[in-house]
Amino acid sequence: MTTILLTHPRCVEHDPGSHHPESPDRLRAVLKALEAKEFDDLERREAPIANLETIKYVHDSDYVDMALESVPSSGQVHLDPDTALSPASGEAALRAAGAACAAVDAVMNGEADNAFCAVRPPGHHAEHDRAMGFCLFNNVAIAAEYARHAHGLERVAVVDFDVHHGNGTQHSFENDANLFFASSHQSPFYPGSGGETETGSANNIVNVELPAGSGSDVFRAGWTNRILPELKAFNPELIIISAGFDAHARDPLAQINLTDEDYSWVTGKLLAVAQGCCQGRVISSLEGGYDLIALASSAAAHVRALSGRT
Ligand SMILES: [Zn+2]
Q1: Is the pLDDT of residue 310 over 70?
Q2: What whole-number distance in Å separates Cα of residue 167 and Cα of residue 140?
Q3: How much distance in Å is there from the Cα of 288 to the middle of ligand 1?
Q4: Is 22's pLDDT higher than 80?
């Protein structure tokens, strides 16, 4: 299988400040892991800058303009208590969203089976009109809307295995029966949303709550019994993954105990669903993951599975 890797140096340079968990070292660690010989056959592409019109399919126009105008020429500016901008952040955010759209183009045009976007800032907490939880623009939601507008798709699914609930994605999708969102996440936990009673206007939202201390068994049962059957039933034309690796046992921000093998496993299951419903079309975008060792090894496990070498 052909897998494309999209990234850009500006995504490393985005710097929310010293001691911030969402650090440039995160992406450095992921990219270093993907430099290993076994990944020589990844097709590496530069993440392009997203069109503002595309970002505004998901986000309030005034918010997008304000966020980009807030980018400082030095130091940091905070958009919310957790989300800060540095001089590189505007371009980084535009390239993070642009990577996801370019990934959609590549798999829709048959240039690759799937794609992984190694980008920062992450996106799944970003709401329609505000930054939140380290996230500026909702990269996966933007990619879903882009797939509909640019490629005429009707049904697009986002699945999210980050340890935090993808509140921004859910809010963007919950009243649209042609969009599907499923998430497994620690609960109760930040950001507070993602209860299993939140099902969307067309039963198009699936939330699996993982109690603190859960491990592989609870995670895999949630995906096997709830998310994967609902995803298959939705029959998407494209599957987009919010790939956060902060449910790993080593992660310092959360209390879920996944291993690298769990990320291989869930990736393989998603590819199998995609083979059945949408010619294997999958794109994936990096979200969280705050232990550098676990982030590197679990992102590598994810990309290894995407490229068919589990
Ligand atoms: Zn997270």
Answers
A1: no
A2: 12
A3: 4
A4: yes
